[in-house]
Structures are given as structure tokens and as C-alpha cells.
Amino acid sequence: MKDKYEKQHRLALLNPYQSVVRVFDPDEDSILVGIKNVASIPNTLMKKLEPHGFGLHTIDKKSQLAGRAVDTQLINPITGHYMSGSSSGTALNVFAGINDLGIGNDGGGSVLAPAMCVNIYGMISKLIEKDRNISLKANTDGIVAGNSIGFMARDREILFKAFEVATGITKADGYGKVFSDQKYEGIDSTIIDVMEAHAPRNELTAYLKDVLKQCDVLMVTEGPVDLYGFGDSLFGHFDSRTQEIQKAANKGYVRVCNIAEATALAIPQKGLGMATLLMCESRNDKIARLLKLSEKIEHVHDELIERYFLDIDSYFNEGYQVE
């Protein structure tokens, strides 16, 4: 543990992706945590996590300009494109192995999309710090909503441990009634004709709220996120050409999970920027079934990506030596 901690800490100080704002020194046996640099994530959450082995390691850079959906200051290390925002720095620091857990906030995909674009887990819920003061503001589509707090991790069990500590919710014995957009191997679901994922946010929000009342979990495939397009409504609002480029970024249901007050879990698929998205009403019983359903979905390891980006020693290779 000490060797792992020292490497992660050195990498945080090196800050190779310009994604770290501040570095702390937690205990060396801690599960290292990065938190998005926003006031809407209260320190009461970290106080809950600390007795369970989590330690604050970094404050993470956020997307500039009021939570923009694409971060034009940080680069996705896999694609070379701009990172999905706005919890972009937090996602990068988990992806690169600086932190084991990331904590961000999500108004319209700001946790789920950054996690998806680098193929790590992302989860949001209104029940995380549900009693905090939440400021309501209009998004770029004029929809007024508060945000959700969310977690990101490479390791599913770390993600679920943090969620259980934060909410007290554990897995149910069964996953109940599942609606899905297609057949998923090993899962008993009812396939439905889901609304087009690029529908206007107000229409998709209303649809999602209605469907989630009829089932325990809705299951869809999302992505690839920000691979072929530029998924940002500031960019997309100009004309039909920029709207098509925005749609090509394939941010669908992730845009509305928070607005619909849903709990959502993005599970990485093998394809770059792809995820299986599980959504439910933010009720304890339904979330417990969502967690159970997630066990049926295989955890994907990309050996090449992990070998390339998680070899922390490679960030410190000596360069050219002058004699």
C-alpha cells in the first residue's frame, strides 16, 4: 500500500494532465479521493467517507464557464479531443490512477459523460447528501434544476462502497422489473421502443420520468461520448450544422438523468466512450435493485489502456542527459 500511495502522490504533484488544483497528504493506506473544485459538494460527504478508509487526496480542476459540457482546457488522453465536462479533472485523475475515487456534481451529464469518455464507472443520485442546500439554476436549454452529486471510479467495488457509506443503500436480492432498449445477455428484461436519445431535453426528461415509474430499472446503451462530435449546447445552439455536430457526440440520456431526478450508473463497455446506462427513480428500493442488476454486467478490463496509462513509473522516466 505504501508503494502504491507514494506513486499516486508523486503523480498528483507532477500533475501531468493539468487536472489537479491542490494536493493533500492522507494516510498511506487510504482509498484516495479527488473532489471537483465546486462549493456545491459539501465537506460533510468527505467526513462520512473518512471513517471508512477514504482520504482526501486532490481538489480537481473543473470545466470553466459555469459547468460547460466540454472542457476546452483539458485533453482526453486517449482521443486527444477536449475532455467531456464539467467534472473533467476529476474523471482524468481517476483514469490516470492519481485517485481511486472521484466526487463530482452533475446537472446535465457532468459526472456521467466525463466518466464514459475515458471508460470508467460513473454514478449519480439525488440521495447523496440529499439534505444539502441546492441552488436552482437554468441550464443552456432553459430548464431549471439543481444538481446531483456523483462518484467515479475504475473499481466497481470502491464505487459501491462509497455509495453505501453515503446513502446506506445496499444491493437487493433481485433486480425486479427491467425495461431495456435491446437484449442484454443473461438479463431478463422487457425490450421497449425507447425515445430517441437526441430528442430535446425537456421531452426526453418527461419521457424518462414516466418510464421510470413503470419499471424498477431502465437499461440502455449510450455513446460513444464526444468521439465523433462536440457535445456542448453552447456550441450546438448556433444553427443546424452545429446542432448535428453536437448530436454526433452521442450524449443522450446522460443529459437528463439528473433533471429527471433519477439515480444512474454508467458501466463501461469495451468500446471507447461506450457504457451501459442503468437508471431508476431515486427511491431506496429501486436503487437497491439497480445495484443488484449491475452485478449481471461483466466488468471490462482494457489491458492495453491500463498497462499504458496506469504504469505510474513511466511518467518519471529520465530524459536526455547532457554530459
Q: TL;DR of this structure?
A:
The chain has 323 residues and is of the alpha/beta class. It has a single domain (2-313), classed as Amidase signature (AS) domain (Amidase signature (AS) enzymes, Alpha-Beta Complex). It has 11 helices and 15 strands.
Can you lay out the helices and strands and say which pair or pack?
Blueprint: H1 2-14, E1 20-23, E2 31-36, H2 43-49, E3 54-60, H3 64-67, E4 70-75, E5 82-84, H4 88-95, E6 101-106, H5 112-117, E7 121-125, E8 137-138, E9 144-145, E10 148-153, H6 156-167, E11 178-180, E12 190-191, H7 201-214, E13 217-222, H8 233-236, H9 240-247, E14 262-268, E15 275-281, H10 284-294, H11 303-309
Point out poorly predicted stretches.
Answer: none
Euclidean distance between termini CA atoms? 37 Å
Could you give the order of strands across the largest sheet?
1-3-2-6-10-7-14-15-13-11-12
Overall body shape: globular
Might you state the CATH topology name?
Amidase signature (AS) enzymes
State the helicity in percent bands.
25-40%
Tell me the Rg in angstroms: 19 Å
- Biggest sheet overview: 11 strands, mixed
The H/E string reads HEEHEHEEHEHEEEEHEEHEHHEEHH
